[in-house]
């Protein structure tokens, strides 16, 4: 039981992969004599353990912050999740083991009132309200937190993406370059396709500009290695060489600033360091770079105003919750009709079982004994709205 749950929650195996892994263990180490459960049994174990972790009385956190986000639409559903983390960042980026999933809410959409109610449930579970929140600045999140009286830090990655959009979206040269890069995807199945750029993502496009900006710079620097035909097919890059260089300078500045804030948190000291980098690398170096630098410095001034003192160090990144959403989306049912299923109960386990050290404190036997699969089903009925597959079955069964 413990091996199967850890293979899924810690090692990231699917239910069937966990079953096969246990078969390999028995084959290589026959003295182990592991009982091999079915993949269905492993799924039930994981959901019962996840429900136990979600319902567990949370450890007392003297001062805590929340990270909140709403997932992309999965069929008709969106997942609103609340993580509790220590309010003070301790000199390292947040890891899964630093967070506890305190609240999960699934609905077609979440309004400000839903966010406020999630904060109230979190405060009730932990005995006090959070010191502040970190979000991607979605309107519903901002309104709900404002109504609940909670300060909100804007996630630094998402916010810088909006700055890029504001500066470059209407720029003719930038749009011409991105159009040419998009057209380069048509080189597929030609003898120059091995040099093609990666797909330009439609979702979170402005947070991924630097993927192709780095590719463009590498292509320009590799000019002497390319065949005449390859240089001719990708000639548009040299025509926009100054813009490519500019975007890579922005990328270098972003990397330095984000590295400081994600590693060491937001403090008066880190704000001063970031502003010094912005002044040195962006200000006075052209209208676009100067405008971008002004936006970034204004952002730091606004976020620093939420710090209570010189020694306060706050989290400023919601990368952790994005990572947990990614973990769920990679492993959820590929059938979109299923929407959000009870498999989301694996998310509370991600923090508790993300390291073997924290896994040692998890009572596997008790968590499975105290929860039956009937309890999981009852939680699903109470928490999850009807998905498209269930709606289809209900309607078609009535028609027959």
Largest sheet, if any?
5 strands, mixed
What is the oligomer described by this structure? single chain
Radius of gyration, in Å, reads: 25 Å
Shape: globular
Q: Could you report the average pLDDT, rounded to the nearest whole number? A: 89
Distance between the termini: 42 Å
Per DSSP, the total helix count is 19
Number of DSSP-assigned strands: 5
Q: Number of domains in the coordinates?
A: 2
Give the uncertain stretches in residue-range form: none
In percent, how helical is the residue content? 55-70%
State which percent range the strand residues make up. 5-15%
Q: Which fold does the CATH topology of the largest domain refer to?
A: Nucleotidyltransferase, domain 5
Main sheet strand line-up: 3-2-1-4-5
* CATH-derived architecture of the largest domain: 2-Layer Sandwich
Order of helices and strands: HHHEEEHEHEHHHHHHHHHHHHHH
* Class per helix and strand makeup: alpha/beta
CATH class of the largest domain, please? Alpha Beta
